[in-house]
Design goal:
The chain is an alpha/beta fold. Helix content is about 40%, strand content about 15%. The chain has 8 helices and 6 strands. Strand 2, helix 5 and strand 3 form a beta-alpha-beta unit.
């Protein structure tokens, strides 16, 4: 019987954090890597007008999500976890992207118990409503907010854009293998 409920972000967590980079380079005639993105806010990180960035993202978002590669090791760890835990994917994606999101999970053969697209980065209410015991995230302020407001551990996947300090309940990992090791220790 599955007891623990895992809240899991999608973009930059289950998908490779560099998924956006080829689209950014192509659209804005840049030659950046993930290492060049030091802030989550892309307009600030890349010095692009916020309105221009928002319009670009609205237009490009479906293509990005459809083509996003999996983060290395995510498929193996999630396949292992799906046998024991409830996997609840809670994303800031907007609801009109549900079909693309569900198709991506199908194409990648990633099992899920629930996918919720909340259209906001504030995932606290959704995580609380689903009674998650632990959350997996790549956005720094989301991780801190979830840990502090829900008093649960949050596993934060290291990226160049999330390097601010974190409280004790936010655990940094570099990959899905490290996340799995931490979970195994946490369960004991």
């Amino acid at each position: 019987m599955k007891e623990k409920r895992f809240g899991i972000d999608i973009d930059g967590t289950v998908t490779c954090p560099a998924s956006l980079v080829p689209f950014i380079n192509d659209s804005f005639s840049l030659n950046i890597t993930l290492q060049d993105i030091k802030q989550y806010d892309l307009s600030a990180a890349l010095n692009i007008c916020p309105d221009k960035m928002r319009d670009w993202f609205d237009q490009t978002e479906p293509a990005i999500y459809a083509a996003s590669p999996l983060a290395e090791g995510a498929d193996k760890v999630l396949a292992k976890w799906q046998k024991t835990f409830h996997l609840l994917f809670i994303s800031a994606r907007r609801q009109h992207l549900f079909d693309i999101t569900e198709q991506w999970f199908h194409d990648q053969e990633i099992h899920y118990d629930h996918i919720e697209l909340i259209g906001s980065h504030d995932k606290v209410a959704a995580a609380k409503r689903h009674g998650v015991d632990i959350f997996f995230e790549d956005k720094h302020d989301n991780a801190v907010m979830l840990a502090e407001e829900l008093n649960i551990p949050v596993v934060l996947f290291n990226t160049p854009y999330n390097q601010d300090t974190v409280p004790n309940d936010v655990i940094r990992v570099d990959n899905w293998h490290e996340a799995d090791l931490w979970v195994q220790q946490w369960l004991q």
